[in-house]
Every structure is written in C-alpha cells, then in structure tokens.
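Thought: the user asked what HTH merR-type domain-containing protein looks like in 3D. I have the sequence; next I should run the structure tool and report back without guessing.
Action: structure_tool
Action Input:
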Amino acid sequence: MRYYEDEGLITPGRCSNGYRDYCRSTVDRVRVVRSLLESGLPVRLIKEVLPHLTPGPGVDTDAVCAEFLREVERYRDRLAAHIAGLSEQRAALDAYLRRARRTDR
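Observation:
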C-alpha cells in the first residue's frame, strides 16, 4: 500500500494520530491497480489513466477508456515485438549450440 502511495496511485486519508486511513474507495482503487499490474501493465500507464477511470464532472469516460485501450494495445504490440526479438535471439543461440556440438565430436 505504501508503494502505491509513493507512486501516486492512491492517497489515503490520515487519522488524528497520523495513521493512514484506507476508506472504501481507496481499497477499491487498490483492487483496480492490482488487477492492472497483474495484467502486465506498467505503473506509468496505470498512473496516467487511473484518475480518469472514475466518472466525475467534465470527464468523458468513453474517450478516456478508448484512449486507454489504444495505449494498452500499443503496449501489447511493443511487448509482442520484444518477445519476437527475444525468440529470434534464442533461435540464433540454439543454432549456434547445435553447430558447436557437431564440431565437438
């Protein structure tokens, strides 16, 4: 919870004794953050969209959600490209090892 607070993802209230007070909305937000993190999204992306996921005055949630989905798609595509690059590197290493083992005999 302190990590989420340090990253600016939640802002808990404070009691008179200085203890943090996690109200229901903060707990709900933590659940959303955990779900997004478990999906593999970076904190940077979550931090950008999180304030807009809760409807409020002057917030077009449809536009925010559409932009968020585009951002998630871009992140997924970058991740897929990275995975493809790593797969190519693994294939090159496998080929090298096969050649090296043939010459050892």
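Thought: the tool returned a structure. Summarizing for the user.
Final Answer: Structure for HTH merR-type domain-containing protein predicted. The CA atoms of residues 15 and 38 lie 31 Å apart. The beta strands are 13-14, 20-21.
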